[in-house]
Model the fold of this input.
Amino acid sequence: SDYSTEPTRHSSLQINSKEPFNAEPPCSALISTYLTPADLFYKRNHGPIPIVDDIEKYSVSISGLIENTKQVFMKDIRMLPKYNVTATLQCAGNRRTAMSKIKTVKGVGWGVSAIANAVWGGAKLSDVLELVGIAKLTSTAKFGGKHVEFVSIDQCKEENGGPYKASIPLSQATNPEADVLLAYEMNGEPLNRDHGYPLRVIVPGVIGARSVKWLEVINIIAEECQGFFVQKDYKMFPPSVNWENINWSSRRPQMDFPIQVNISGYAASGGGRGIERVDVSVDGGKTWMEASRFQKSGIPYIADDCNKSDKWAWVLFEVTTEIQHNTEIIAKAVDSAGNVQPEKVENIWNLRGILNTSWHRIQVQVTD
Ligand code: MTE
Ligand code: MO
Done:
């Protein structure tokens, strides 16, 4: 693999792996804006960043279980109606490092910032598939349980040097309401190389691994993609019973004057669900207060109200309160389906270190 032509990156990124390049921004910078600037957006790669220099010649071929295969060029994609979809992308491995503190897990370590939010501009996949005669809202009845596979041009060692690939069900791909995009813009700018230039898939509301960058081939296939990243990676396993306790006991002496703290963060749920509530505790979970939630300033956030909220995007939260002494601050959210976060990472530990949705806990020390 050749890492000599990597793009330059923002100096504040924390690098979790250099080759392939995996990095996340400081969490304070991450939650300071609703839309994450491209240079601070987490970068998750499995090989070197490909270079596409002849944009005129660049095309996506659509083939597989269809009558007519087709080469689709950038100009064809730009001719289709353009949609801007605000969607939060989150790696299934976000917060893996916290899981690996329980017991070693396999995979690149991530703090809390393998998540970010952007406006993605591009054509709807449902419109693109119509170009090859696949009707919108193709039901599973007509097409069986077919899937749409996305194949990239990068080279991953997990695929023995072959490209990254992943799939989604055809019924999701042909559903305009699922907002699956072939995106060529991020926050109003052309995609940059790190994020998939010139064209990537965006599958809102599901783990980032399905949003294939540097798209080259779309295959209509009979079953879910058989590639490494779908079959052998990003799967949830039951927790092991051999977990160890984290030692939270090393706390410093109390200080008696109250201190104002501003606690802020992100909350996100999959499948287009909104965030009903965010609870914050500054006494290790004994008492809770409700944080205020927002997406765009000036517009009150209301979960699942399509006029007031972006359904595929995260919700930022904030609360200001007093703390007296060393403590544990906890944040947990409830989504609009009533899903709550599990209290302890121990109970959801899995050997791939994915889907760490447990309460987020931060130890704070009060000093002079
Ligand atoms: N697409 C390609 N071609 N190669 C990759 O390594 N990584 C996937 C996905 N698409 C990947 C890919 C994973 S695991 C995630 S979480 C997202 O891209 C990350 O997208 P980002 O780097 O734009 O944040
Ligand atoms: Mo990921």
